[in-house]
Design goal:
Oligomer: single chain
Largest sheet: 3 strands, antiparallel
Organism: Nocardioides zeae
Shape: rod-shaped
Protein name: Pilus assembly protein
Number of helices: 3
Keywords: Membrane, Transmembrane, Transmembrane helix
Radius of gyration: 29 Å
Order of helices and strands: HHEHEE
Helix content: 40-55%
Amino acid sequence: MRRVRGWSPGRRDQRGSAVIELTWLGILLLVPVVYIVLAVFEVQRGAFGVTSASRVAARAYALAPTHEEGLRAAEAAAELALADQGVDRPLTVDVRCSAPGGAGDARRTGVAVCREPGAVITVVVGTSTELPFMPEVLGGGTPTFALESTHAVPYGQFREAGS
């Protein structure tokens, strides 16, 4: 009987176990990487949505004939822009105006200033986005990222003052 070097009758055969180890190692590494990619995409989608929402809200407000209609149009436009990105979270729309003439007239702010020719309308839209697949068991609530975007548009130097 010929004896194979390094083999003894009591030893288990290890052939084929590398495939199993590689498969488990791949699964253990792949799952967290896929989750991180999904979480980054979710936050990026919210960031795209809030940026688009602030831009269209500022334009909608600037084109509206009155302050009240402008606020309604800005909020509706922001909600629509966020819905386009699949974000259905509550949002805040804040409209600020600065007087024409730059920093020297900074003391003049408010609703009346928004409709003066040359005024700058600044719209701030804020919302949040949740991380996907996070159970409440791990921390009492789903982790969220706060998202905010600002966009400024001029009312128009050669426009008639509105109400």
